[in-house]
Amino acid sequence: MFPRFILLILLSVAIYSCRDSPVNNSSRFRPGKDELADINRYIVQKDRERIQNYSERKGLAMKESPAGLWYKIEKEGNGAFFKENDRIVFEYECSLLDGTRCYSSKDLGPKDVVLGRSELPAGLNEGLKLMRPGGVAIFIIPPFMAYGLIGDGKKIPPRATVVYNIQIVSKDVYLRSFQQ
Prior knowledge:
The protein has 180 residues and is of the alpha+beta class. It has a domain at 62-178: Roll (Chitinase A, domain 3), CATH 3.10.50.40. It contains 4 helices and 7 strands; from the N terminus they run ααββββαβαββ. Strands 1, 2, 3, 4, 5, 6 and 7 form a 7-stranded antiparallel β-sheet that branches. It is elongated, with a radius of gyration of 26 Å. The N and C termini lie far apart (92 Å).
C-alpha cells in the first residue's frame, strides 16, 4: 500500500510539473532601439573585417564608398559616368567571398539593365554609377547592400557578401519619355 501511495504522489507531481503554464513575456529579453543599433553596428563591422581580409588576401587595393560598397575600378572607360535611367549592358561574374561562383554572363549572357529601374542589388546599382562606358571594375558588396538576410533564393545564401567582376559592354540613355 505504501509504495502505491508514493507512486501516486510522484505521478501527481510529474503531471502537475508538465502542465502548461502561462509564459511571462515580461521576463524575456527584447532588445530596444539602442541594442538593435549596437547589434547592427557589430554585424556591419564583422562584414567589413571579412571584406578587408579578402581584399588583402587577393592583393586588391579596394576603396569603400560612404554607403559601404567596396570597389576597385580597374579600367576607367570613356565618357560620362552612368546615372539613373541609363541603360547599361555588362558582362559579369558574381561569386561569394569563398570563391564559389554563383552567376556569370558566360552562362547567362550579358546583363541589360536600366539604372534605378531594374531589380539590381543596391550595391551593384551604386557601383555601376562609379563607372563609364568601356570600364572594368570589381565590387565587393556586403549583405545589407546585396541580397540581405534571405539571399536570392537560388545560389546566393542568406547574409552573403558577393563579389562582382564587371565589364561594361555598352551604354544607352533610356527613353526619357517613359519617365514622364
